[in-house]
Amino acid sequence: MEKRSVTVAAVDVEALEREAQGAIAAASTRAALDEARIRYLGRRSELKQALRGVRDRESGMALNAVRERLEAAIDAREAELELTELKRLDEALDVTLPGAPLRRGHLHPLTQIIREVEDIFLGLGYEIVDSREVETVWHNFDALNQPLTHPSRSHRDTFYIDAETLLRAHTSTGQIRTMETRRPPLYIATIGRVYRRDTPSPRSTPNFHQVEALAVDREITLADLKGTLMHFVRAMFGEDRQVRVRTNYFPFTEPSVEFDVTCFLCGGTGCVFCRYSGWFEMGGAGVVDPAVFENVGYDPEEWSGFAWGLGIDRIAAQRHGIPDIRMFWENDLRVLEQF
Ligand code: PHE
Asked: Per residue in 205-228, pLDDT tens?
């Protein structure tokens, strides 16, 4: 492009433009470019001062043309610098490389089962209540009508902290805790850890989980218990499961039963998993003993109820076909990640 040499207010515009273009081309960083912009186009630059002093049209046009060319040069240089910067980043960082996989955790299989159990009870209109793991002998045994001679009271079976305090051996303590503070009707379930001095084996660990259900209302019978149990088992294991009830003894229920569920693996025909019986022992249940109601201040003439309890770890083992419940406690990710 042809340029005309103009001298305005003693400024050699041509020399000024050459100098400015040189500085712009030489700017190798954005900061340097900014400096050049301020120096040649800023408010106090020679060019701006000349523009302010201009009186004739021709000089004004010439100066403005220089200003425009310098602005365009700065913009172009800026784009160039940006591109160089991007290229440098691009070389340092290969955005097409696959990212490092984020390892996502999930709930422990026992927690998953606990949540499911809670959902089933909530669906039945039960309330989930919390109870404590460190308990009094009263809540774990006495209030539950446990005879003083009962073997489970011994130091060999139960973890005592002192003569009055222990780690609860079952969630039936939650029945007492709830009834002591509330009036019937009650439909509650309590879930948590329990402790027994058992030798670890594929079928038992000294620390495991139980769920306890308690219903107290008027005219509750064994039939209500069986109906609730059937519903629970089928919701948990599937519609085709059968429940078998056998008579048993618990100090806090009368009558008392033990209940079994058909084996998840063979469906009841008998296999290694169920030791060829076709059944799995799930837990204990019964109609609340009047002595228990008396211990918590309920009138046994007015109120009746049922209770049942079962081991969560066993349910989880059954559900997943795990042959050894100790696996739930070993925290071996190779096992846990499968569920
Ligand atoms: N607490 C009993 C146990 O741990 C189970 C049970 C609960 C039995 C409620 C009857 C009623 O074996």
From this structure: 999 999 999 999 999 999 999 999
Whether pLDDT at 3 is above 70: no
User: Which of 131, 145, 250, 288, when mutated, tests ligand 1's pocket best, judged by the most ligand atoms within 8 Å of its CB?
Assistant: 250
* Gap between the Cα atoms of 117 and 232, Å rounded: 8
Answer yes or no: are the C-beta atoms of 321 and 265 closer than 8 Å: yes
- Quote the ligand 1 centre to 256 CA distance (angstroms): 9
Q: What is 109-336's CATH number, 3.40.50.150, 3.30.930.10, 3.90.580.10, 3.90.245.10?
A: 3.30.930.10
Cis peptide before 290 (omega within 30 of 0): no
Model pTM score: 0.70
How many Å lie between the centroid of ligand 1 and the Cα of residue 152? 12
